[in-house]
Write the structure tokens for this entry.
Amino acid sequence: DSVGIAATPDDGNFLLSGIVAPGDHSVRGITVTNTGSPALRYAVTSLSATDGLASWLDLTIWEEAEEGDPHAVCSQQPPARLLYGPAGPGRPAGTRVIGDPAQGFQEGDRTLLPGASEKLCFMLRVPLSVGNIPQSSEASPEFHFDAEQVDNNP
């Protein structure tokens, strides 16, 4: 059995621009698919640097559709039930944002059956409290997805 996971941004990349003032935000969807044959669980870690625009942003993550519809469009406002956030700016790279990449079941890990997909929505927002930021700033956040099979990793 092979374990495989694909995390695909809806628009082909995760570049965020046009966030230039306090209160501005951007939402991007990522479809996570189990491309392997066994059920898997996964965790997500932020690899974003803490300099430039990334150091100013709050991060919030939610699952867009309760039924796991990977074709759902991310709304511009998160629902009441969040997977992560809102977490304040200045988080160091390596911050766990969903689950824990340690082997075995960890609180917050996400599970997908073979061939299943789910849509995760990532919102980055400039908090009202930060004041002015450089208007030419842009951020390309990076996230690492760790997956393992469920059956042999209790």
